[in-house]
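Form 7-S
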Amino acid sequence: MSEARLAELATLATVRIGPVQDPRALWGSGFFVAPGWVLTCYHVLEERLPPEGDGRLLVQGPKHRCAAKLAYRPWTEPVDGTGAGPEHDLALVRLLEDIDHPCVWLTDRSDPPGRLRLYGWRVGDGGQPRSWSGHCHSNGTDSDHGITLGSLHSIPHGASGGPVVDQDYGAVVGVVKARRRHGDGGLAIRSTALRGFARAVPVAGETALGEDPFRELMRRHDHWHGQRSAAASWARAQEELGSAEAERSWRPDDTLAALARVSALPPPADRGLVPRMIEEALGGEEIWLEEPGDWREGHGRLRERLQGRSHPAEDVVFLHYLWLVSQVHRDAAPEESEGLERFVRHRSSELGPKGRSVPDSAYLPDALRSAMAAPRAAVPGQDAAALVVELDPDHYARGRFHWRVWAWDAGVDSPRLWAEEESGEGATLEELPHRLSAPLSNAFTWTDHGSARARLEFAVPTEHFDLDVHLWRSRLVARSLRPHPADDHPFGVHRQVVLRDLHRRGAPAPEWQQRWSLTEGEQLEALPLVSLANRQLEHASAGAVPLLCRPAAQSAGPLGQVLRAGHGVVLWHRTAHHAYGCDEACERFRAETAAMLRGLSGVAVLPEEVRLLRERVSKDDARAAWAEDLALLYDDPRRPIPEPTDRVSSP
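Output:
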């Protein structure tokens, strides 16, 4: 089994990174992952570039030399004092010149690798950088995206950021991260961590990879490999390896050709669609520890499922899956869908009689047909994806809360429990943003699709309706909706953030359901509650939205009556102070809110309207300043929060 071609391809795509001013200096390694893009470790660049990130660097390979810049940094930060996981140490570097260069092949699999070869650069004799490689085995994992590297003479200084190649499958499965301080071996970052670039942080206004850098990067990667000649492709290297992939009826060049076409399609509207398609292609249910989230990953999971199985028509299974994928976006992306369908039909025709078993559109399963026909609910929308955070006060420890996170996929009426507090001690309001950072970040990775971000709903008791949850962010509570150089944007600026009534858990009351159904599609209008009377609520119009010009803490009585009357949408001012009744500020608040509501039809658009106002405040728009402390209760009875399980704390 010759590994020479694989080594040649990996070496040609591995680069060294250093300062423009000194071409001999070596900061670390990286590799070409797509045309014009280099993947490396963030720590290679973090302390060597200006804080604003617009400093230039030099990328050099065996046959290439080009100026470049840091374009995207890790998508999140450490959430507590334990430090960041390996997945946070990735960075994307953009070349500043248009040069022709090779690219590595990134695996579509997510199962643990075995025999590995690491590539990178080191400082040689006389200080001259030299290319380096070394063999080792993976002997374990570190968190979700770390690979521990076994026996190896030593990983030299400068190799961080280089590719980790699986010698059995002929594909890059990770990035060299660190060497052990004492002894051999080290740590690598699995390629699965690249999914975090779906919400990467652009550096110095970088926009080249659009709203979803991960998806666009992989599209360019797969498209580039789909255009390569056989002699220069990683598929040929895999075949020459005599790897398990080369010996199967679904060949390496089939994978490259298929994924090049799949990458042109929009992402799945519902991540649950991908495992259902795999199960349909395999002809039975599968157990999923973690569901595949996109078409490419689904292809890799299908290969993993077939690994070790004796399947007489493996190529038919892949074609069945790809054919189903081709049908999903026939209306939204007809040209791209037709391209994948043509590939499936052509490849099926090569199989003779067994190729006829690839289904035709007339045999599309009903369960998948209905899922494919329904596009993903847009944001805003009543059926959009949402995360609900329950904050349940501890009955004994005053000021502490127990929390749960529920996730609703787009178009799905029943939630699933995503994460919950397990210590039994709860958390204070100051601790909650930190405790919730990791579970929310992980959940957003699955529920967000490009610019369509899941709504964030906080279910709290009415006495806590004035919480500034819209100012929370990944790690700290922001100072204000107004811009501040030390703050990233809070949640309320880039996603819908609303409140729900914790005491409405379980089956919704009839008056709540009835009132909600009346507001759907109705022209909204403000119902100012200046001097509240039950009669005012009972005879409110279908589109009436109760409006309070004072904080919830000062409106316990009115809020209670509003909720008992079945209203699921309420607006109020979080911070207004009323020592002697309403004043001119109240009048302006009511007038501005009423004007906003007059232009809206149906409650479904209200969360996005509030978000847009918060975004304008963050940009210092004086015309939106009145809405800085506007709070919204948006309590949809069609998505009731499940009843709590019994939980007690020791007194």
